[in-house]
Design goal:
mainly beta, 0% helix, rod-shaped, 196 residues
Amino acid sequence: SNTDFYVEYTNGCLASRQLVKALVNGAITAPTVTDGSSCGTGTVLLSANKGVLGTFNWYDAASAGVLVQTTSGVTTDNYTTPSLSADKTYYVSYANTQCASPRAPVTAFVVATSNLAAPNVGRCGTGTVFLTATSTVAGTFKWYDALVAGTLLQTSGASVTSNTYQTPSVTAGSSATYYVEFTATAPVCTTSPRKA
């Protein structure tokens, strides 16, 4: 709550006391943030919103760190990162004329084709083979019988990080090559070329 204090001054003669108010303002919550992403190396757009005019301060660390951008007199602010080749988290705080909020983390995701892994698999004797592809981000896997064009053999569900394809029977002593293509959910990035 607010508290009143009084101050007096004397240099031989006592002056009347003056009122000094200690004002306690309510704490400000961190702004609402929206992560961003890039398809491969590039800049990423990050957003923050508070709904009330104020100042947004963007940092490269959770505490201290470098102030990378300040924008005043707005309710929503965007920050465009430098070109990134890997995920990076930034932090944004909101301030009005009296108080500042805690910093909120905002992550810039970089989706790269190197996120897709599909190791070779063997078996003993004639039979089917289970091929599994994985990704570090969510998306959709598509299996083909050719590097380019070809027949679409299987499509995974949406927003998954792994998928397994069971081949037709492969004769002992022979081999067959299949190809997987991955499309990330956000941003929509498709691996090229397909991975064998």
